[in-house]
Specification:
Elements (H helix, E strand, L loop, with lengths): L2 E5 L6 E7 L9 H12 L7 H4 L4 E5 L1 E2 L2 E2 L4 E6 L34 H8 L5 H7 L4 H16 L4 E9 L2 E2 L7 H9 L8 H16 L6 E8 L15 H10 L4 E6 L17 E4 L14 E4 L7 E2 L2 E2 L4 E7 L10 E3 L6 E3 L10 H24 L4 H16 L2
Antiparallel strand pairs: 1-2, 2-6, 3-6, 4-5, 7-8, 7-9, 9-15, 10-15, 11-12, 13-14, 16-17
Length: 399
Amino acid sequence: MLRYLTAGESHGPVLTAIVEGMPAGLEITAAQIDADLARRQSGYGRGARMKIEKDAVEITSGVRHGATLGSPVTLQVKNRDWENWKEIMAPGVVSPSAGASRIVTRPRPGHADLSGGLKYGHRDLRNVLERSSARETTMRVAAGALAKRLLDEFGIKVYSWVVEIGGVHAGIKDEKAEAIFRRAEGSEVRCPDAQASTSMMRRIDSAKKAGDSLGGAFEVVITGVPPGLGSYSQWDRKLNARLSFALMSIQAIKGVEVGMGFEVASRPGSEVHDAIFYSKKGKAAGSWWPQTPRFLRKTNNAGGIEGGMSNGEAIVLRAAMKPIPTLYKPLKSVDIGSKKPFEASVERSDVTAVPAAAVIAESVAAFEVANAFVQKFGGDSIKEIARNYKGYLKEIAAY
């Protein structure tokens, strides 16, 4: 199986990810990872921190001469802002006055500050916010870039785009995911609807002027996924559960839908379930199927997952992100020391990070699908997995 751990604080010297289980022989370069790191940092409405950091990964283990070795892959990204925080965030003992002005005792509503302080007994809430910060997602994107490269070897593609910011909704045309994605990549808010993009940016400008923040929603679509990833046999092996868990683990995500999502609650079964067909000619679009007869669905209300398993259609996920909880016109809070009411602390923040969250969601979803793929087809090298995969495709073509 694939797994990864991340480590590092928002203003610490470095962020780290260790990826275990990546098969040998996967070609990867730092530049390929950096491309997704840059996408995560972009987007209209981002704050001043993104002007400081220019994230670039350093691969320090598990890759030699441009290919994975099968051993753990270590990825690191340096925090440029560390130079301004060396004393405040020093791992060693410092004088009591060092960084005293940056001690945080006023928890911000909507953040992990107060709950984390109560849980760990911290009297300086910076000990909480430094790790709970979404800066940590830098390394999830880096790990996800490895997973995307693995999936790409087998024709599986991961796309995302923004469908709403601050109540402004996009109109998405019924067309191939790749075409929608290309339009989204040309938008400052990663929205494929040009008119909606303009309205979203105006809405962001208004919120910034008011010292407020905005949430929104995005979609992740994964194409070329073969049927049979995941399992119905145990609750924790269901692919939809694993993907939902991954998306909900992203900071500020408050809801996830698969396929038709919550709309299924208001429709009869005849309008929800996807009829099954059989084609003797196969289906030209897509990646996993050979040009041979196959089962297919002409609708995809299930979002590519039935019974906890991929069904061969595109996996469609949506997630809702709450507004950034750090406000430049802060909400009321209570000082944990004096217990007196104050306005909450203000840290540098974004007006909205929905475009960045969509990129992060691509990454965590890709990792879960890659993990399910490796579990299904096994193998210690890309060549061995490819042999197993080819045999499976041959088997289901003759089903």
